[in-house]
Amino acid sequence: IPQPHPENLTPIDRSHMQVSDEEAIEIVGMNKWFGQFHVLRDIDLTVYRGERIVICGPSGSGKSTLIRCINALEEHQKGKIVVDGTELSSNLRNIDTIRSEVGMVFQHFNLFPHLTILENCTLAPIWVRKTPKKEAEETAMHFLTKVKIPEQAHKYPGQLSGGQQQRVAIARSLCMRPKIMLFDEPTSALDPEMIKEVLDTMIELAEEGMTMLVVTHEMGFARQVANRVIFMDQGQIVEQNEPEAFFGNPQNERTKLFLSQIL
Ligand code: ADP
Ligand code: MG
């Protein structure tokens, strides 16, 4: 796993990145099973507006499942998840509300290959939000400019590099004006030279105050951007702390073992 050092990432002034005392996400006693397999155990997690949380842990520890539950891509069986004041239940209207407020970026970009970059960015705003096409295109160009690839708007995903495609995926999410952004290993499928451009885009979002949950092995990013690092193992949140304490003085044996293997 490539480990860009914090000094290689674009420096940021963390003093602007305020965390409010308003809850963006509240998870209480949440459990999830895949059939007989108990994948998430007694998850309690409150995320405040403006927080940048990095989630790490071994493969199979439940990181993806946790963030997929927050976006209602997976159903949980016990406990509650409240996103921006709306409780996630089987109520479909609630699920639509939450999906439109929570953006998600995956490891494998998940762009529509047969649509142009611009069409990828306007599809949901036009069809889900009923935004007029012209306005949706203006918004798309705004966010494509923000991720520094407006000139790619009329190309197809296959014509772009992995780093560019991932920045399109971020722009596409932003076009829905989400209040919260979830990232699931957004740089894991990228060649090393493209990791920085995606992390820099995420750093800019963080600086603008976006509430972010990021599953990543990029510990340089965690140190620099996160206000809280969460370690998961075997479906549980084992340890969480500010980055300095988390990396400098981990408490749990499983955290120590994990960090010794990746740092
Ligand atoms: P991580 O993202 O930390 O690698 P995941 O959340 O993807 O972990 O998976 C946690 C565990 O749940 C793994 O053991 C995985 O095999 C299992 N799992 C994930 N998705 C499913 C599924 N749809 N059905 C059954 N088991 C699953
Ligand atoms: Mg995963």
TrEMBL record:
It comes from the Bacteria. Signal peptide: none annotated. PROSITE patterns: ABC_TRANSPORTER_1, ABC_TRANSPORTER_2. The keyword Lyase does not apply. Residues 25-259 form the ABC transporter domain. One of its GO terms (molecular function) is ATP hydrolysis activity. Keywords: ATP-binding, Nucleotide-binding, Transport. Belongs to the ABC transporter superfamily. PANTHER family: AMINO ACID IMPORT ATP-BINDING PROTEIN, PHOSPHONATES IMPORT ATP-BINDING PROTEIN PHNC. This is Amino acid ABC transporter ATP-binding protein.
